[in-house]
Amino acid sequence: MTKLQTDLLKALKHVCLAWSNNATGFGMRGIPDVTVVTNKRIFFIEVKDERTKDKMSELQEFRKQQIEECGHFVFVCKNKEDINFIVQCIKWGDL
């Protein structure tokens, strides 16, 4: 898990239920890194930092599209400012 993902999960724990999808190695390829559950919605977050060159792979873009077609939202988090934005959106239910 990257530092950015760790910081994101720490920030989210105060406003919702959130977990890393890549902690066990089991699952579906291309699924966003973090799942978030609130009392009203489910969100997904793909974490991109300098290590991943801030770009989503074709498979990740495809999974994002699949998730959004099911009516859910996928955030892409690239830095601390994105963490603050995501937490505020979830906290205040802006989506």
Question: How would you sum up this structure, described in words?
Answer:
- The chain is of the alpha+beta class and 95 residues long.
- Strands 1-2-3-4 form a four-stranded mixed sheet, with helices on both faces.
- Helix 2 links the parallel strand 3 and strand 4.
- Helix 1 runs parallel beside helix 3.
- The protein is globular, with a radius of gyration of 12 Å.
Question: Can you summarize this structure?
Answer:
37% of the residues lie in helices and 20% in strands.
Structural class: alpha+beta
According to DSSP, the number of beta strands is 4
The helix/strand series, from N terminus to C terminus, equals HEEEHEH
Q: Could you tell me the strand content as a percent range?
A: 15-25%
Overall residue-averaged pLDDT value: 90
Low-confidence stretches: none
Radius of gyration: 12 Å
Strands side by side in the biggest sheet: 1-2-3-4
Distance between the termini: 27 Å
Largest sheet composition:
4 strands, mixed
Helical proportion, percent range: 25-40%
**Helix segment tally:** 3
What spatial form do the alpha-carbon principal axes imply? globular
